[in-house]
Amino acid sequence: MKERKQSLATLALIVVTIIWGSGFIATQFAIDSQLPTPWIMMIRFLVGALCVFLFFKKRILPTPKKTVLHGAIAGVILYIAFYTQTVGQGQTTISNAAFLTATNILMIPFLLWIFTKKRPSLRIFALCLLAMLGVIMLTYQGGFSLSFTKGDWIVLLCALFFAMHITWLGYCGENDDPVQIAFWQLLTAGILGAIVLLVTRTPVQAEQIQKGLLPVLYLGVFSTGVCYFLQTWGQKYVRASEAGIILSAEGFFGTLFSLLLGLEAFRINMLFGGLLITLSIILAQRPEKPKKTSQTN
Asked: What pTM value is reported for the model?
């Protein structure tokens, strides 16, 4: 039964990466509509929270105070991660945003080490590096210049917060109901978005809403509501370090959708990058060998 749940959880996380991959495209459409970032953030999270609530109302009410707190913390981290990603992507390319966001793979084992005081196995570090190499190959466009723009640095900051979010969900998954965590984190992020909107008094025009509403609704329903329920549930049965490796496939699917929509030209390194990411995910599912215990006579 445990292995079956782990398999289903892995499948759920893979579905998340597919939807998130398409989310890069939807985010770019929302940005191109010139819909202000605070409006994008508020709408996507409130719509996501509403979707989870409508489907799981009886499981959400009532929620223990501890779970509400855990969900609220996750929501704050999530809002900062997505805000910095959206702002950063508006100042760099889709490929750069996908690649730099994926660097959270390398950050997760170190965050786990810091928070749990337990060093992840060398196997996990190796698989993270393998997945990272796949992401680099996937997004490599020739040349070796390392000219970081302001947008690149902002997206790199978002990667840190995504790593913190995955690590935190790994902790919450041990005792909290994933549906309740998913709802309260999205509601908190949505409320935070509304507060930011009121403080900044960001104006919006009817034309911007008309052009940007459809992609933002897609982000709210699928990339937020569906995905964060699946991720929270999946991380109840998959360790944070392994979840990070699986979720690294987001960049692969982002590139795939870009190719299908004609937004990028095919490059052979995309194929090899995707294969490396897939290999790291498959290897991450293999059980680790039990540590040998010294026997004394």
From this structure: 0.80
